[in-house]
Amino acid sequence: MKEYMSVKEITGPLVIVEGVDRAGYGEVVKIEGPGGEIRTGQVLETSEGLAVVQVFESTSGLNTSSTRIRFTGETMKIAVSDEMVGRIFDGKGNPLHGPPIVPDEKRDINGEPINPSSRDYPEDFIQTGISAIDGMNTLVRGQKLPIFSGSGLPHNQLAAQIARQARVLGREEEFSVIFAAMGVTYEEARFFMRDFERTGALEKVTMFLNLADDPAIERIITPRVALTAAEYLAFEKDMHVLVILTDMTNYCESLRQIAAAREEVPGRRGYPGYMYTDLATIYERAGKIKGRKGSITQMPIVTMPDDDITHPIPDLTGYITEGQIVLKRDLHRKNIYPPIDVLPCLSRLMNKGIGHKKTREDHSGVSNQLYAAYAEGRNLRDLVAVIGEEALSPRDKKYLIFADRFEKEFVAQGYEENRSIETTLDIGWKLLADLPEEELKRISEAHIKKYHPKYRT
């Protein structure tokens, strides 16, 4: 371990050290202040005889004359064990309550990229118990499916409900949830902890909490710590792990803060030009590996500034991931929970995870027919605003009523309501039964004869 007292400059969360010999990118650094307190940092940039260190704690109290910098020669690692399940940790992976973890091993938080040739194609259905997701935008094991929300919308409640209810259907398999919160308030953290404890879901949930008053730099490592734990549980302990990351907007703001402190040339809206690459190092750690029983599924939550889906954070996230779930403010104003707007939503892997022996044979047809009917009803709402409802034909009025019922009966459900996929599809059939049978052009005649309420009764 090499020690230096050649701090050249301290700017924001960064410490610039001169005369450094062979520092490595990502190397862990111990920083001893004038008062003897030890802080942790990480090498962010190296050049000949110079190293830029980002400090995970505050830099207040440090000075250029008496601060000691020790380079450990190791990258940042966390202790991993199956004892992590049911525990709560801070953003750096230290337990907040109870005894320390007895590690099976220590792992680099940056992980190892999955070889594309060894990736297995995601095709197993995960039931979240939420109709707008299960029925219309199905989550598949090994998928990356983000939730795009806005400030003030109930994305925290939705995340907690998914974490509580998510399960793999069919054979009994070990299923676990890793929940990583970045930049949340203490009240939000208490909400998640109380909810998981109240419902007993904490037994299968591992929580990593980075609070709003914690150093912003810590937010950079929180998702990586969480995903390192997920990789251990999935690929060493054969668990199927759902990783929920909230809020990726706070993560990207920390990236922008560090880039500004380094005086980098900004990209779109001040975010660093490498933000796409940085986000990909997080999102691409989801997936399945051939020959391994476990899997990692990701549901990152992104709060869109000004509800703008073209903002760089949701825009880049959409490029990397396999679809999106979009929450809409208009539905929230109607007291519809969850306020999921199914029209801009997408799950690119949905067709591989539904159908016979996975969900139900009529799933694809019902989903397509519900989408088409709701889209037509939404278009008619705009028309009614211009010409009035009296000018509509009887057929158009049925679609207008369908759109309202779809939102109130299919999309809307209780916070504690856990719907099976059969219940979700039956609700869909109940709504479609009010449309003329000849309008059901996206469902096969065999499925209509088998599942249409008129024939089932």
Description:
The protein is α/β, with parallel strands linked by helices and 457 residues long. 34% of the residues lie in helices and 24% in strands. The chain has helices spanning 131-134, 155-165, 186-199, 218-235, 248-261, 275-283, 312-320, 329-333, 350-353, 363-387, 394-411, 421-432, 445-451, 453-456, and strands at residues 2-4, 7-11, 14-20, 27-32, 38-47, 49-55, 68-75, 77-80, 88-90, 105-108, 119-120, 125-127, 139-140, 147-149, 167-168, 175-184, 205-211, 240-246, 287-289, 295-303, 323-326, 346-347. The strands form four sheets. Strands 9, 11, 14, 16, 17, 18, 19, 20, 21 and 22 form a ten-stranded mixed beta sheet that branches. The chain has a seven-stranded antiparallel beta sheet with strand order 1-7-4-5-6-3-2, with no helix packed on it. Strand 5 (38-47) and strand 6 form a beta hairpin. Helix 2 (155-165) packs parallel to helix 3 (186-199), helix 10 (363-387) crosses helix 12 and helix 11 packs antiparallel against helix 12. The termini are far apart. The mean pLDDT is 91.
